[in-house]
User: Fold these one by one.
Assistant:
Number 1:
Amino acid sequence: MTRRRGRRPIGLVAVVAGGLALAGCAGSAATVQGMPARPYLETRAATHTADLLLVADAPVGSGQFNFDGASAGQMTVTVPVGWRVVVECINDSTQLSHSCAIIQPRSSVVAFAGAAIARPRFGLRPGGSQRFSFTASRVGSYQIACLVAGHREAGMWDRFVVRPGGRPAIRGAVRAS
Ligand SMILES: [Cu+2]
């Protein structure tokens, strides 16, 4: 099977241009596709669990290479070491496959066991979603990234920080409504 390796972001330029053309109506997408609006990060302190919603290409079909409306490091998610992180990865693109992974910076190596969707280089089809969970077991600075070829380079990455203590937090996410 060479399909995954050979995959290219076909139509990348056209999609970006299309996104710009659609920018005028982007504000109308107040909710995640087919789902009720909910916070991007929720905390269950009793079980040391953080629920993280990663919406690729938000708002719906905007043609942007982002998570939760934030790209190229604009968003930072922080969790205390040892906490469980449950990620709902939703692809709101109408045209492109996207994935969610927590990786070592400047590499495509998944940082924690289970910290990516299945087959992250292949990605979820438009409108698809997948849940995964992992334990943030090491303090450090990581990235949230899409591992479909060319997407991280196009800005589809944000920051994921594991701290020695404190509470889960998120800043820089953009709510469409
Ligand atoms: Cu992507």
Number 2:
Amino acid sequence: MSYKLGTSYFSTRILEHVEKDLKEIKKQGCNFVLHTFDEVDLYYNKENMKRITEMSHKMGFEVYYSPWAIGGVFGGECYSRFVMQYPDACQVLSTGEKVGFACLRQPKFKEYIKSWIEACAYAGGDVLFWDEPHLWIAEWNDRVSNKNEFSCHCSVCQAEFKEHFHKTYPNHWTPEVEEFRDLTLVEFLRFATSTTKKVNPKMKNAVCLLPNDNRWPNPMWEKLAKLPDVDILATDPYWKQRPYATGRRDPLEGFVDTFARKIVDIAKRNHKEPQGWIQLYGLRKQDEPDITQALEMWEKAGVKNIAAWGFRACESYSLLTSERPQECWKRMGDFFKKLGKSKAASKKKK
Ligand SMILES: [Zn+2]
């Protein structure tokens, strides 16, 4: 199998600029592109998403879409209209506090996700990339994690907990709370991925798992990997955390390579395609060699589907960008071109 190499792309819906950028992405050795498809696109840009997709296909790219920060429950630097429109369909913490994140069990949110899938099918994408699905995360909301402050404790979740465990949903952490939260994500993704196939059987599903969970074997990952409509299993061990310039630096060893091995193991056992993502954003000049090292780790793990977040090291977002975005972008491109050539050479030998 030849390499599938890609990058995420966002910020621009001006077709002239998109065309120029896609040419640049092509030159970097990419053969797929992930277009973020957020709530603004869903309301205001369906036609432009279709045009951008047609343009991408014409240039030979496979097209991924991610539900960028939709409902606040997927990865992405964007805001949610849903949580403002439907506060009653949002998550509630175990403390009773309402938070601006859609509840994955609320019918209203499921309907909304179905409308997003239909818009994706209309726009013509090939792969729906369910990126970092999560419940409320304390650290992402500038809070210190406290095990007894968790979601979701809304009325729907309380009723479903009672139905499942035949007891009242506790407001402190228990093994059943952990199991219920895992099931919340698994059942939501079962709904999302099966709806995708119903709407358009040709569309694939990728699920990108957050590497923030140290359980291994991970019962949630095991259940997700068994979902019949999941085609690709990905993870994104981004080693440099916020704040990007001064934040904690995770060593790549024991993190990127470990999660690469984990995703390969679980994908192979469940007959799914493994995919790895590397970080191009938020890197200082001295961090640039990390890019090559992370790519080597994915290559060494035997992963043939590799992508980077994101286009020109996210220079269109000043909070996210790397210190020298062009150098980061070039480093990715050099490695991708080398991977592409290595496959071409091995084909010739045969
Ligand atoms: Zn809920």
Number 3:
Amino acid sequence: MKPKINHDECIGDGICEEICPEVFELRDDGLAYVIEEDPDDSLFDKVEEAVEECPTSAITVEE
Ligand code: SF4
């Protein structure tokens, strides 16, 4: 599982970090970053929730 964030779409509301701080981090530049490039499968549900809850659909996950 390889989560990615499209920074052209991210509006920096930090929802992804709230849902899964193990993988996503909101930084001072107002954008969220992936801090765990290959998360353990145990985090799959939380990553998927972040994908669904992101208001701009900026997060994608490649298998
Ligand atoms: S939930 Fe989406 S828009 Fe919000 S900070 Fe995360 S990637 Fe950016």
Number 4:
Amino acid sequence: MNTPYEQLGDEGVRALVDRFYEVMGTRPDAAVIRAMHEDDLAVMSDKLATFLIGWMGGPQRYNERFGRVVIPAAHQRFDIGPAERDAWLACMQDAVDESALSPDMRARVMDSFGKMAEMCRTRD
Ligand code: HEM
């Protein structure tokens, strides 16, 4: 079980993303980033899950379904400072903590999310 995808599978990654957006809808510190998204998260959930399935070591289907994406560039139009980055990571931490990932895989995944989220920051 060397990759997060091996531990979660498609279903598990999709459940993680659903939980992530559920948490984003309830945490007060995430209200600002929730408001950056559409009211209806169905398309975004599908996009993020499809992206993460590939990113976590599973099949790479994002490009064929949605086109090429460069994650930092996809965030350039948003106002993302340290508080917004940390709120995103806090929602993901909650979802990861409730997932089927092993404790050491949780730490590895959160480390990678931390680096990626930092690259999405658009201001100090
Ligand atoms: C740093 C904090 C972050 C914030 C505030 C944020 C917020 C957003 C928002 C508002 C959107 C657009 C939603 C829409 O079109 O309805 C988006 C798109 C997306 N985000 Fe993030 N995001 C963050 C970090 C991340 C990270 C770390 C990843 C990947 C590990 C990620 C992956 C994606 C993907 C795949 C899309 C879809 C891109 C597209 O439509 O072209 N985001 N994000």
